[in-house]
Design brief:
CATH class: Alpha Beta
Bound molecules: flavin-adenine dinucleotide
GO molecular function, one term: oxidoreductase activity
InterPro entries: FAD/NAD-bd_sf, FAD/NAD-binding_dom
CATH superfamily: FAD/NAD(P)-binding domain
CATH topology: FAD/NAD(P)-binding domain
Number of domains: 1
Pfam families: Pyr_redox_2
Order of helices and strands: EHEEEHEEEEEEEEH
CATH architecture: 3-Layer(bba) Sandwich
Shape: globular
Number of strands: 12
Largest sheet: 8 strands, mixed
Protein name: Pyridine nucleotide-disulphide oxidoreductase
């Protein structure tokens, strides 16, 4: 299967990126674009989080419930974004004008890839070893990692978001980072004209 964007990781950053990109698929600049999310969630740090300090989320919300409701929200509002479940990425290789992504079950190609797999070790995706460095905003004793990037861009067409981009571990930062990457991709599709997606009350 070929995609225009393949987002890897169904945690805070990945789901947020998918929601914003999904909401932008109705824009003329996104006509015919195919987006998918490898919605692996088992190792999301949200699984054990209790959220009390996030704007708009009721205090006491369990992170594991956000994972479920986020995936449902994506499916209900933007079903064009394909959710590929129970797949884990094992390898990424660079092609001319895109990437080959190998999971434990399938092989995909995509013009753009967004990595949102979190900052925990070990980093098991082969092919990106040259971009992995110690995390610059986490305690060294925690042994966290990030990918070398400039404003979320690792390599043309290859983006990173969330804690793996080098952000501190807060839910709102990870979501914002995923949303930022989505608007960068929408802007690129819109020939460089800055693009965001806002819904308005009628
Ligand atoms: C115990 C705990 C409590 C917390 N409490 C708070 C809090 O109160 N407030 C707050 O703001 N933040 C809190 N956080 C932090 C918050 O959960 C993280 O900042 C946030 O989840 C980071 O988002 P992320 O998308 O970078 O990574 P994650 O949410 O960890 O998502 C990474 C995703 O990538 C997937 N993945 C990994 N490897 C692969 C692979 N090879 N292929 C495909 N998918 C893969 C994982 O399954 C996971 O779904 C807490 C975290 C923990 C651990």
């Amino acid at each position: 299967m070929n995609f225009d964007v393949l987002i890897i990781g169904g945690g805070a950053a990945g789901l947020s990126c998918a929601l914003v990109l999904g909401s932008g698929l109705s824009k003329p600049c996104s006509d015919g674009k195919k987006v998918a999310l490898i919605a692996h969630q088992r190792s999301s740090h949200l699984s054990s989080a209790l959220l009390n300090n996030v704007l708009g989320i009721p205090a006491g919300t369990a992170g594991k419930d956000v994972l479920i409701s986020g995936s449902k929200q994506l499916q209900e509002l933007y079903p064009e974004v394909q959710q590929l479940i129970k797949e884990k990425v094992q390898e990424i290789s660079f092609l001319e004008g895109g990437f080959k992504v190998v999971t434990n079950k399938n092989t995909y190609t995509s013009k753009n890839v967004v990595l949102a797999t979190g900052y925990a070790q070990p980093f098991l995706i082969k092919g990106l070893e040259d971009y992995v460095i110690p995390h610059k905003k986490a305690k060294p004793s925690k042994d966290r990692i990030q990918l070398i990037n400039v404003d979320h861009l690792v390599y043309p067409g290859l983006y990173v978001s969330g804690t793996l981009a080098g952000h501190r571990s807060q839910y709102a930062i990870a979501c914002g980072s995923g949303a930022a990457v989505a608007t960068d991709i929408l802007t690129a599709w819109n020939c460089g004209e800055h693009t965001q997606v806002h819904d308005k009350m009628k």
